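Residues determine shape. Take a concrete instance:
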Amino acid sequence: MTTILIADACKPSLVMTSEVFKDKILGTVVEVAASGKDALDYLSQKRPDLCVVDFDLPDVDGPALVEAMRRLYDGPILLTAYPSDIVQQAVEEHLFAFNDASAWIAKPVTFDKLSEIIDRFLISKHRLEKRFATQVEAQVVAKAAGRGKRAPKLQGAMINMSLGGACVKVAGAAKFKKTQEVTISVQLPAEQSETPAPKKKKAGPQLTETKIKATVAWTSPKGEIGLQFAKLTDIQKKQLEVFFKLNETIPAPPAAPTSSPKKPSKSSRSSEARA
């Protein structure tokens, strides 16, 4: 059974979004939150399969709520909004590091627009965090296997990163085992460098050594290590976001088509006509 949480204070919009999910996935259970507080209270107790957040809520704006929800929930979060420059700017500033929320859905919601996003993030389980191409030095240090034993410590190059993890290429990757806890050291922009200093346009951001705890997710014969980050601090998250803005996004693969896409029912088509 699929459970969807929709945070939207506008009843007509809420009805249209609900009908799309129910037409798309039979048996869908829709839970409703009329405010940001209600959404956070719900996530503190339950875990839905996907969340939909409206940009204009009575007590909080959509991007701020999405950021707060990320601390409680690791599933896909979609954003709906009536198109405007303010919405686009807010998404680019606060949600650019995520594939799901940054692909915001323009209102009025229609079956085709929302169905495509459902296919991508709920059915095909598309990666939520954007990956950014990086070429920076990094050191990976693992815990020692026992008392008196030296901890593996390898220098390498960070190939790509996201808010969820990284891929590092090192000589001797076979020394690391899956699920092994490690600490990765990398030079990242200092938190205050997000706003460039005046009269120093050519100078890059001030860097500082940052240590991030992670777990080895996989290793490859090519000497690559896949790392899954532990919970980031707010400072680490801001440092990574500043760093990502200096690097190119790795294009995401297209969503795999569903085997038997469901056509919208009469009820959803009539809802779209009323919008």
Summary: The chain has a mean pLDDT of 86.
